[in-house]
Predict the structure.
Amino acid sequence: MNTSASHDPNCIFCKIIAGQIPSKKVCEDEQVYAFHDINPWAPVHFMLVPKAHISSMAQLGQEHAALMGHIMTLAPRLALEQGCNPYPDGGFRVVVNTGAEGGQEVQHLHVHVMGGPRPWAKG
Ligand code: AMP
Ligand code: ZN
């Protein structure tokens, strides 16, 4: 996948990935960028985003299966690294808001990972 061709210059998460807007980075590889949510709902709250600009989960096709598999398998490892307590007494929540009715505010696919001791600010 050519990620540079799928960069949207008007997208806030593309700007974060490009380093044009600061972020608190969790990790990065060729395909994925992970960073802390600026307005956390839980003691641990970060997001995993594909470096390629994909507007939402609604745009996913079979060609994205490996990318999404990579993101979903990174999530549990990063959750523990970021301070979520181990399963089953700890755990974490994964949320992908999609579209207006799905509560999506930023139109670049992102996988929220939230965890840590209760209570949380939301959810
Ligand atoms: P959603 O409602 O699923 O589209 O979530 C978008 C998330 O992006 C919200 O939880 C925001 O707090 C978060 N967010 C927006 N701008 C930034 C930013 N500059 N850095 C980190 N997180 C951000
Ligand atoms: Zn983008």
